[in-house]
Automatic annotation (TrEMBL):
Source species: Sorangium cellulosum (Polyangium cellulosum)
Domain of life: Bacteria
Protein name: JmjC domain-containing protein
Ranges annotated as spanning the membrane: none
Entry-linked SUPFAM superfamilies: Clavaminate synthase-like (SSF51197)
Listed InterPro entries: Cupin_8 (IPR041667), JmjC_dom (IPR003347)
Pfam families recorded: Cupin_8
Domain JmjC positions: 196-335
PROSITE patterns listed in its UniProt record: JMJC (PS51184)
Amino acid sequence: MGEQDREQEVAPEWWRWATENLLRGVPEGQIAERLQAAGVGRARASELLAAIVRSPIFAAARPFARAARRHEMLARLQQRMARAACDPTGIPRRSGVSAAELRDVFIAGNIPVILTDVVTRWPAFGRWTPAYLAERFGDVVVDVTTGREGDPDYDMHAERHTQSTSLRDFVARIEAARAGTNDFYMVAKNRVLERTRLGALLDDVALPEGYCAMQRALGSSALWLGPAGTVTPLHHDTSNILFGQVYGRKRYRMIAPFETSLFEGARAMYAGRDPEQGSMEPVLVKDVVLEPGEALFIPVGWWHHVRALDVSISLGINSFPFPNNLDGYRPGKVA
């Protein structure tokens, strides 16, 4: 290789940079000017760009890059409009929402809403307390997650932390943790409603006509029970969920799916960021406290971080009367 050829060698990072900018739609002339400013000769810069464009890999990537640019434009539009709201960090509280409005406005629109008059009509409201559960179902053996504070990925590793105990002993443990703790919790993965006599608790749940298919609720509902201080890390789900707060309060921090920067560093359903640890800027966070007797509609794909402010009993239901397994993040199949 001659001295002139060595001078014209282009570092791999410039090949990557040029390819990325071509895929982003930057005009070739602008890219060539930048390469020349970095010391690449005019003829060599033209050859490099021509080689990239002729590559079959580049040709295959181009339509995906165009689609990505369109989605980025849509996400930026949604982000700007969300910040234009009168209360951009709040979630509306509504009463009297019919099944048609819930479906046409909030479910179809992928909009969270707090329903103030749904849980208050359940026989469960005012009846379900830790003491009531211990008295009626104290002998029932339930699975709970323990030792969570010793594992930074406790929610992802729930199976590793699962232990069996009687509900009576678990309630006693909750009552003893007056200062609050995140070390133990009965979470959705326990499936106690489906596996134990606790399924009878659904007799105390009466949703408005058309909200959910209650005949499927047993296998599509989750009971949450724990002390103050329990935390569910920032994550998203692949179905719509109606989350009824029966006892105690929970603080929700929710982030829309169009805040796509959260996918950076995410692992499976879990974000790589924590809204309790530093600023989430520039991400817009909706921050609300769910009071006893309120139900929160969590649209599919919305990131949410949850902290129990009190001893808490909650019921999550996702047996909506339409297909609700909406895993849009699953890898595609070979075309």
